[in-house]
Design a protein that fits this description.
With about 425 residues, the chain is α/β, with parallel strands linked by helices. It has twelve helices and 21 strands. The protein has two domains: about 160 residues, Lyase, Ornithine Decarboxylase, Chain A, domain 1 (Beta Barrel); about 240 residues, TIM Barrel, CATH 3.20.20.10. The strands form three sheets. Strands 4, 14, 15, 16, 17, 18, 19, 20 and 21 form a nine-stranded mixed sheet that branches. An eight-stranded parallel barrel has the order 5-6-7-8-9-11-12-13, surrounded by six helices. Helix 2 runs parallel beside helix 9, helix 5 crosses helix 6 and helix 8 runs parallel beside helix 9. It binds ligand LLP. Ligand LLP binds next to helix 10. Its cofactor is pyridoxal 5'-phosphate.
């Protein structure tokens, strides 16, 4: 739940704002973010790392949720920014984010995207392959600059999460594989390549991870790798980016690790393994996405149709669905819903909140308890702050929802709802 969620007069309030009134004023489907929750998590992350390990930074992985306002807030809260393509970079530029704090990711950044990033003056490009290394070197040369780079290494750590979002194991399209010592050999190419400066390594083992030991294992592999590089190639590797991936609770029964425990585990691992392998403690970075924004966000819908299939299930159709939240259809994700105008009442029925799209798998919440639903109710689905708006689509000509930030009793529209004109503005 967002930190400021509360029930007043049977209505759900977030940030001191009545969700029922907000839904009726702004229309639904509607993404709502608790700004205090968002800022609290950003601050908590930064503090959790800084207090344990001075030379550290937190990078917000903007793929989780992106608009100009969240970029401005991340900057105000002292975070760096991870962008994974030209479109995310453009948002950061438009929002005035300092380019030296931008980290560019992606396994197939196009030459045009690399050129945009390098000429914008981004802080680090996380090089994902040998071919890309040559491209970055060439483009930086053409632009007459020396670009600081990391190499993304695939540490071969199996994180305990959904296979679609597991990225650090050996069979991965991301990064330089350690198989056949390939990554190690490529480090030499990176050191010798003109117009680039290798300043660090990066790894990311996956997302929605609950068990912290995977992060410790990844840190060990990376620091052992740094030790070997420093010894055999005789260069300093001053930075280590350990990626994102900390899980969040979608259900009350989910028990993810806290930000503090994650910080304790990773900083401890770095200190331990630096001591063990005789490596100077590097600047460390982490790049969380989900664990910064997921809990802060909710989605509001209006209930339009009710259908009971005897002996099967009850369908409650909402005015959104897989277009604003594809995670249920894609990963069979779980969410907790509430009827915002009956928030103080017990959840007495098991229902499926299905969407309005022409696809049977279109549901946001499957077989979960909720208050007695009626036409016109405002349904609220919790924990939709991450990977919902950024993975949204216009399927069936559905305009994308507005985004509202709430705080201290005030609601601000930070992204307006898409119009029908927006939908077809690009057609010739
Ligand atoms: N760094 C890199 C290089 C990443 O690829 C990702 C996520 C992150 C950081 C942030 O990871 P997080 O802290 O959010 O777990 N669409 C999926 C999640 C895909 C994650 C992709 N990479 C979902 O909805 O569950």
């Amino acid at each position: 739940l967002p930190r400021t969620a509360e029930v007043r007069d049977n209505h759900l309030f977030i940030g001191g704002v009545d969700m029922v009134k907000l839904a009726r004023e702004e229309g639904t489907a509607l993404y709502v973010f608790d700004e205090a929750d968002l800022r609290w998590r950003m601050e908590t992350y930064r503090e959790a790392f800084r207090s344990r390990y001075e030379n550290s930074d937190v990078i917000y992985a903007s793929k989780a949720f992106l608009n100009k306002e969240v970029v401005r807030i991340a900057n105000e809260e002292g975070l760096c920014l991870d962008v994974s393509g030209g479109g995310e970079l453009a948002c950061a530029q438009m929002a005035g984010f300092p380019m030296e704090h931008v980290f560019v990711h992606g396994n197939n950044k196009t030459p045009a995207e690399l050129r945009e990033a390098i000429s914008a003056g981004v802080g680090r490009i996380v090089v994902d392959s040998r071919i890309e290394l040559a491209r970055v070197s060439e483009i930086a040369g053409e632009l007459g600059v020396e670009q600081a780079i990391y190499m993304r290494i695939t540490p071969g750590v199996e994180a305990d999460t959904h296979e679609y979002i597991r990225t650090g194991c050996e069979d991965s399209k991301f990064g330089f594989t350690m198989l056949d010592d390939f990554a190690f050999k490529c480090v030499k190419d990176a050191i010798e390549a003109p117009n680039v400066k290798l300043v660090g390594f990066h790894c990311h083992i996956g997302s929605q991870i609950f068990a912290l030991h995977s992060f410790r294992e990844a840190a060990q592999v990376m620091i052992e790798f740094i030790a070997r590089v420093q010894k055999e190639y005789g260069i300093e590797i001053p930075e280590l980016d350990l990626g994102g991936g900390l899980g969040v609770a979608y259900l009350a029964t989910d028990k993810p690790s806290s930000i503090d425990d994650f910080a304790e585990c990773t900083t401890r691992a770095v200190k331990d393994f630096c001591a063990e392998y005789g490596v100077a403690e590097p600047r460390i970075l982490v790049e969380p996405g989900r664990s910064l924004v997921a809990n802060a966000g909710v989605t509001l819908y209006t209930v339009g149709i009710l259908k009971t299939l005897p002996g099967i299930r009850k369908y409650v159709a909402i005015d959104g669905g897989m277009s604003d939240n594809i995670r249920t259809a894609l990963y069979r994700a779980d969410y907790e819903p509430v009827i915002a105008n009956k928030a103080g009442e017990p959840r007495t029925e098991i229902v499926t909140l299905c969407g309005k799209h022409c696809e049977s798998g279109d549901a946001v919440v499957i077989d979960m308890p909720i208050q007695h639903p009626e036409i016109g109710d405002i349904a609220c689905v919790f924990t939709t702050g991450a990977y919902c708006s950024t993975m949204s689509s216009n399927y069936n000509g559905q305009p994308k929802p507005a985004v509202v930030f709430v705080k201290d009793g005030v609601a601000r529209v930070v992204t307006r709802r898409e119009t029908y004109a927006d939908l077809y503005a690009r057609d010739i």
